[in-house]
Amino acid sequence: MANIDELSSAIGANKEAIEQANTSVAASMSSADELSGQFQSLGSEDKVGEIEQIKQGLEQLQQALAGLVSNVESIHAQAEALRG
Question: Pick the residue with more confidence: 49 or 2?
């Protein structure tokens, strides 16, 4: 039978997974910035524009993940409140 500690721990693990995903997205943003600079130095503005679209998508993903962290924190607080 599950207990409050197990529930709280599982929710905490969900938060950690989301935070790790956000770290991975940040690494992707860094790669996109580097690639954009390389294409810019080659004068390939069409590729730079495409990368900017990718970066916008990654930024949206980061925002969504930040919202998920907030939601998980709220849910975690609810689980902790079960302790009375």
Answer: 49
